[in-house]
Amino acid sequence: MPETHSKYFFNETNTCSIKEGSDIIIVTDNFSTPENIGSIIRLAANVDASRVIVLGSEACRQSKVKKTAGAAMGHVKVEWQSADTLVIPDSYRLVALETVDGASDLYENELPAKMAIVLGNEKYGISEEILARCDEAVYVPMPGAIKSMNVSHAAATCLFEWLRQNLK
């Protein structure tokens, strides 16, 4: 049986890179589950995000975040901030991943090459304060009976769509 481990698969022949000038920042807004923060950090390392900004979430145990993120902690810059100190570079568009009036279908939208994607609290979504600062909103279409998904699953869907649109 052939070796299936990713460390053997992703070699010189199975690599990809992002277009020059493209970058993504991931912003988590008051997550309550440390494992979700860890999963987001791991996803950030998958898509080569420049950083993860964690707003709020002070009550989340850092040890659980680090355990879930694993080796990704050493590959992604993680900043813990409060909502009132959130600073995104001017060249980035702040995009909410949220089911809110005016949101557009993720797959019918050209995502910004420089994007700061905002992910909301697992139960309450993105806070009104942060949502008001967003330039636009996108949602993941769901034709099935269940119209919600774990925030890390929604993030993976969005991040890899952004990556697909920004591959060389």
Task: Note down, in words, how this protein is organized.
- It is a single chain.
- The chain has 168 residues and is α/β, with parallel strands linked by helices.
- The chain has one domain (20-165): SPOUT methyltransferase, trefoil knot domain (Alpha/beta knot).
- It contains five helices and seven strands; from the N terminus they run H-E-H-E-H-E-E-E-E-H-E-H.
- The chain has a seven-stranded parallel beta sheet, with helices on one face.
- The model has no long low-confidence stretch (mean pLDDT 93).
Task: Write the CATH fold name.
Answer: Alpha/beta knot
Mean pLDDT: 93
Structural class: alpha/beta
Shape: globular
What is the N-to-C succession of helices and strands? HEHEHEEEEHEH
Uncertain runs are none
CATH H level, superfamily name: SPOUT methyltransferase, trefoil knot domain
Number of strands: 7
Percent helix, as a range, is 25-40%
In angstroms, what separates the terminal alpha carbons?
A: 33 Å
The CATH architecture classification is 3-Layer(aba) Sandwich
Cross-sheet strand order for the largest sheet: 3-2-1-6-4-7-5
